[in-house]
Design brief:
- By secondary structure, the chain is an all-alpha fold.
- It has a two-stranded antiparallel ribbon.
- The radius of gyration is 24 Å and the shape is rod-shaped.
């Protein structure tokens, strides 16, 4: 059995997008669902399918059209409300983790090259509420261990 079109679209994985709270909680998504009567249309199609012993092209086309509309609705909402970095949706936790890694690499670079912390490192540390280690009291091994 092949995956439904919603999951087989390669780059546009709605299962990943819906895993992000910012898309699930989006008022925009709820308003669009209500405006386009998605729940009613899904229920109507499900009721019609229950009464049919076999599927013909009309029902398959109706299902695919409704599925495409739902997927596009989710993708457009995610694009509108989600933060996008480098072309991908990013959760807030993932953004913080990336900034933390960048900060630690920059600290390590300053220690290895025996230079003072730059203004951008101090700004990033303040943004992340991270206490910078005293430059004179830490060596490369200690920095890596942290």
């Amino acid at each position: 059995m092949e995956a439904p079109p919603s999951y087989a679209r390669g780059k546009k994985r709605i299962d990943f997008l819906l895993g992000n709270d910012h898309v699930q909680r989006a008022e925009t998504l709820q308003k669009r669902y209500e405006h386009q009567n998605i729940a009613k249309r899904v229920n109507d199609l499900a009721t019609r399918l229950e009464n049919k012993p076999h599927l013909d092209e009309t029902y398959i086309t109706a299902y695919n059209d409704l599925d495409d509309e739902i997927v596009e609705l989710i993708l457009s909402t995610a694009k509108r409300v989600g933060r996008v970095d480098f072309g991908y949706q990013r959760s807030a936790d993932l953004c913080i983790a990336g900034k933390t890694i960048r900060l630690h690499k920059a600290i390590l670079s300053c220690i290895r090259n025996d230079i003072r912390y730059t203004e951008s490192i101090e700004t990033l540390a303040n943004e992340l509420n991270h206490q910078l280690p005293n430059r004179d009291e830490i060596n490369v091994r200690q920095a890596i261990a942290n």
